[in-house]
Design goal:
The complex is a heterodimer. By secondary structure, chain A is α+β, with helices and mostly antiparallel strands. Chain A has a domain of 79 residues: Thrombin, subunit H (Beta Barrel), CATH 2.40.10. Helix content of chain A is 34%, strand content 29%. In chain A, strand 6 and strand 7 form a beta hairpin. Chain B has one domain. Classes of the chains: A alpha+beta, B mainly alpha. Chain A: This is Cell shape-determining protein MreC.
């Protein structure tokens, strides 16, 4: 190919590589808010996606139903057995709730760290290349959604809102391997064991739970929940279950692998949580200043 | 009407990628495959092959930028990859005679060039942590089959439209 690399084309190629590197460098900085043209683009794409997702979902749902019908009988049997258990648990729950309320009333405590406001949203799309784990939901700034809010599905914690435009917002799933995608979490047990969730291991198909102290004893099957530290996410959201533990390369900490409790692929409806009370009370801060 | 037809069609394909992955991915995930629809890229490759290089390059740039802004966090990866893919494929097509088999081959080659570009760049930045062999078997192969089917499906109706567009370009 004689004309493939003439001088002029070589220069254009080099210049475009420089521009590419500059653009990547610019956009790797974590930006809090989107620029106006970006917001406009996202909103208009979101609008088209809303038109698309309904028929696509109906079609997918039809096939899913066909597959599910085979298992219905078995599932029904199992659920019936669980129903008795549920009745027992419900009575216990009501009782505990009542005691909790009376105790709270005695203490004059109205707000709680675990309180949060819930907003429902529908998933209208997903990042098609599966390197980036983003989903798009049909609620945006006008519904009061702000960046960094926690997002859960009925089965558990799935991620956080990264950026918001007027009518739609982007949710980064916990399985995204971005280096800023970190979550503080606790292993539930007699003593709370802290660590951070840092991305997804594609080979093990599990979340990577790092920075666990080396002397902490963790068993397989223990549940991992959000810690609620750091003012951003509400505590006690279920993330997953420990399936494997190993010491890290240096041997100073341990790494556990978690099976996410929520299905990170089959997500239709999500809930966006807003924490009602910040971890550090403003009034407390004022008192300290006095 | 004729002027908006092509961008509108590619835009529809572009949006449908996201909806398809959202709606149909759950079933495919159990097979442990990563099927990535690159429908807008296939359409742009057709434009690059059947209309001309400049058109392909421009559409590649435009939709690459859209992909970057809407579906990823980092600007530049798709902008560069899609434009370069459209350009390289249209250079290849000058040496080959356009029929169904050749076009299918070119779109498969094009999609794999794009996948390799994106994989390479994402590995550099640290977004993808997949090993090369896993990438080849679990991601590239299923993706090529899916997009190959799409290319066969649209070949006859789309090429007819493209030839008409090329004729009107010549007349002007």
């Amino acid at each position: 190919m004689p004309h493939f690399f003439s001088n002029k084309r070589l220069i254009i190629l080099l210049v475009s590589i420089i521009i590419l590197v500059a653009l990547i460098g610019f956009s790797m900085k974590k930006r809090e808010s989107l620029t106006l043209p970006e917001q406009f683009l996202k909103d208009s794409a979101g609008l088209t996606q809303t038109i698309f997702y309904k028929p696509a979902n109906t079609l997918a749902g039809f096939f899913e139903n066909l597959a599910e019908m085979k298992q219905l009988y078995k599932e029904n049997q199992m659920l019936k057995a669980r129903l008795d258990e549920y009745a027992k648990l419900y009575v216990q729950y009501e009782e505990a709730k009542k005691t909790n309320e009376t105790l709270k009333a005695q203490l004059d405590k109205e707000e709680d760290l675990t309180d949060f406001k819930v907003r429902e949203a529908t998933v209208i799309g997903r990042s098609p290349d599966q390197w980036n784990q983003f989903i798009y939901i049909n609620k945006g700034e006008k519904d009061g959604i702000k960046p960094k809010m926690a997002v859960i599905s009925p089965q558990g914690f799935i991620g956080k809102v990264t950026n918001v435009s007027l009518f739609q917002s982007t949710v980064q799933l916990i399985s995204d391997n971005d280096r800023t995608n970190r979550f503080s979490a606790i292993v539930q047990g007699e003593k709370n064991i802290f660590g951070t969730i840092e991305g997804y291991d594609a080979k093990k198909q599990a979340l990577v739970f790092k920075k666990i102290p080396v002397d902490a004893k963790i068993k397989k099957g223990q549940k991992v929940i959000t810690s609620g530290l750091g003012d951003v996410f509400p505590p006690n959201l279920l993330i997953g279950e420990v399936i494997d533990i190993e010491p890290d390369e240096v041997g100073l900490t341990q790494t556990a692998y978690l099976k996410p409790s929520a299905d990170l692929y089959d997500i239709d409806h999500v809930m966006v949580l807003e924490r009602e009370m910040p971890a550090v009370d403003e009034s407390l801060r004022e008192k300290e200043e006095e | 009407m004729k002027k908006v037809f092509l961008p509108f069609l590619i835009y529809l394909a572009f949006i449908s990628e996201s909806s398809l992955v959202q709606a149909f991915l759950p079933q495919d995930n159990s097979m442990d495959w990563q099927l990535v629809p690159r429908f807008s890229m296939v359409l742009i490759l057709f434009v690059a092959i059947y209309v001309n290089t400049t058109y392909g390059l421009l559409y590649g740039l435009a939709f690459g930028l859209l992909t970057d802004l809407l579906y990823t966090d980092i600007i530049g990866v798709y902008l560069f990859s899609m434009a370069a893919t459209a350009y390289i494929t249209s250079i290849f097509s000058r040496y080959l005679f356009g029929n169904l088999i050749v076009t299918l081959l070119l779109s498969v080659v094009g999609v794999s060039i794009l996948e390799f570009f994106v994989y390479g760049l994402n590995s550099l930045i640290g977004i993808s942590t997949q090993m090369l062999d896993v990438f080849l078997y679990k991601r590239l192969l299923p993706t090529l089959i899916l997009n190959g089917f799409f290319a066969i499906l649209i070949y006859y109706p789309f090429v007819k439209q493209l030839n008409q567009i090329k004729d009107t370009l010549k007349e002007n």
